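Teaching note: in complex prediction, the entire set of molecules is handled at once rather than each chain in isolation. The prompt given to students was simply: 'Predict the structure of this complex.' The entities are:
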Amino acid sequence: MPNDTHASHDEVIIRLDNVKKTYMLGKIPVQALRGITMKVHRGEFIAIMGPSGSGKSTLMNILGALDVPTSGKVWFEGKDISKFSESELARFRGKKVGFVFQQFNLFPVMSALENVALPMIFQDVPEKQRLARAKQLLTTLGLGKRLHHKPSELSGGEQQRVAMARAFANNPDVILADEPTGNLDSKTGKQIMTFLKNLHMEEHKTIIVVTHDPIIAGYAETIVNIRDGQIVHDHILARKHLWPKNRRTGEQ
Amino acid sequence: MIKEYIQFAFSTIVHQRKRRSFLTILGIFIGIAAVVALISVSQGLKDAVSSQFELIGADVITIMPGKFGAGGMTGFGARPLTDTDVEIVENIRGVGTVAPILVRTAKVTFSGEEKYTYVMGIPADKAEDVLLSMEGIKVIEGRLTTKSDKYGAIIGYSIADDFFEKDVHVGDKLEISGKEFKVRGRISKIGNRQDDSQIYIHMSTAREIFNTSEISVIILKVEQGADVERVAEKIKEELKDKHGEEDFSVMTSSQLASIVQNILGIIQLVIVGIAGISLLVGGVGIMNTMYTSVQERTRQIGIMKAVGATNSDILTIFLVESGLLGLVGGVIGCVIGIVLAFGVQFGAEILGYSMLKASVPLWLIAFALGFSFVLGMLSGTLPARHAARMNPVDALRYE
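The expected output is the structure of the full assembly:
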C-alpha cells in the first residue's frame, strides 16, 4: 500500500453526526442508537466496548456501511453515505471496508484461497490477479501451506486468519472486526489480535474492533464505551498523538 | 463475472446438493425426455408417412366408402362401393386405369399353420397397375399372376420368411379361407408390417371365396396431363348424384397424406401438452428448491453482501443457479429422450416397421435446452429476488 494514502491521524475518515437508529421489534420501536456523534481518524485503532444490547453492533454496521441510520448523517471519506442506495452502499463497502466476524463466516465449500478471492470477484478483479493477491495475503498471515484447505480442515485460529485475509482482499481503508476472538481460546485470540495490531502498524489501516473483552480492547489506541445507544466516554490508551480530550465526540 | 457465477452455481448443484438437485430436475428431465422422444418419433412417423405417400405417386386417387374425417375413419357399416360406381368413375374424363379392390381379413393356412392376414382382391388384368405402381416395388421372386391363374397368389415380402414357421416359396401351396392357392410371386419390401404381410389374389376369386360383390376401395390413376384435383372433384360430384348423399370419400394422395399428417400433428400436440404439465410441475419444483436454498444460505448471502455483492449480483447468482438447474435437467432429458426415440425405432424395426426412423431435429435439441434453461430461470426469479432483497445485517445474524 502506498505510503501517502494513510497520512496522519488528523484526517477524519468516518464522521457520525447525531446518528439515530430505530428498529421495529414486532410493533414496538427499539432505539438502538440514540444520537451518536463521533469521528474516526485515518489510521486509528479503536475498540468499541459495551454490554450486549448497548447498540455496539448497530454502531459497527453503520460505521461499516452495512446499514444506514434512521436519522443523522454518516460521512465516509467526505461522502454522505447515509442516503446511499443499497447498491451504492454495497459497492462502497466492498472497496472501503473489510469485515472480520466472530463466527469467521467463511464459505464451507470454498478453499481458503477461494474464500479470500471472493470479495475481489465483486470488484471485477481478473481471476489471475485475484488468486495472486489471495495467495500473497494468506502467505503473509502464515497460511501459505493451507491455501487449498477447506475451512473445516482448518483450526479456529487459522479460519479467523483466512477471514482476516479476506477482509484485506480489496485493500480497504477500514477493517471492522466484530468480536474477532469471541470463538477462540485466549492464546489463539491473542495471536489474532497481534496480527491485527501488526497490520495496523505496518499497513496503517484504520481498525475498529467491537468487543466486550477489556483485554482485547487493550490492543486498541482508543476505547469508545457505549451504553443504551449512546457514547458514555472514550478513553485514549496510547497517546501516540496528543488529542483534545473530547475530540471524539466533537465537543470542545 | 458471469463465469464465476456459473462456477458458484455448478459447485452448489453438483457438489453440495447432489441428491436434492437431482430430485429437483426430475420433473424437468421427464418432461424434456418426453418431448424429445415423442417429437423425434412422430417426426420420424411423419417422414415415413410422407415417403409412403410419395411412393404411391401424386396421380393416384382413392375412393373409399364412408365419409372420411367427419365422424371417424372410413365408416364401418357405410354403404359399400359397387360395380356401378366403378363404371361411373371409368367414364369420367381424365380418369385412366381404375382398379376396384376388395380387402378382407382371412384365415391363411400353410403346412398346417393357421394365421390371419389381409387378402386383397385385385382385378386380374390390373395386378401390375396396382402392385407395381409404387416406386421401387417390383417382383423379386416368380412372376405376377395372369388371367388364367384363378387360384394363383402373390405374396407380400414378409409372408415368405417372417410369417409362418416355415418359409413360403414360389410354387408352394397356401390355403386361403379353405381354398387352395399356388404362390406365383413375391414382391419387394414396402416398409411396413401390415402392407408386407398381405396376399394378393384375383378380384373375381376373392369375391367368390368371400361371397360378396362389395368393393372395399377403388384406386385409379389420372391420365397424364389431367388435373388431379379437378378429376377428384368431378368424381365426387358424379358419385354424389348417384348416391344422393356424400357417403364416400374421394382423396388424392396428397390429401390422404395431409390427413394423416394432421392426425399425427394432433397427437404431437396432445403429447406436448402432457409434457408441458410435467415441465410446469418441474418448474414449481425448482422454485421450491431455490426458496429452500435461499433460506439455507441466508447467512452466506449476508457475507457476500458484506464483502461487496450488490443486490443484482445476488440476483444473478441465484438466477444462474436455477437456470443451470433447469439446463442440467434439459441435458439429461435430451439424452434420455434420444435414447428412448431410438429405442422405439429399434422396437418398430423388430415388429417389421422398418420405415420408421426416429429423427431428432437439431432445432428440437436447441429448443429443449434453451427452454429448460429459461424455465429454470423463470422458476428461480421469485426466490432470487427474495435473496437479493435481503438486508445484509439481518442476513448476517441469521442462524
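Point out the following to students. The longest strand of chain A covers residues 12-25. The mean pLDDT of chain A is 86.
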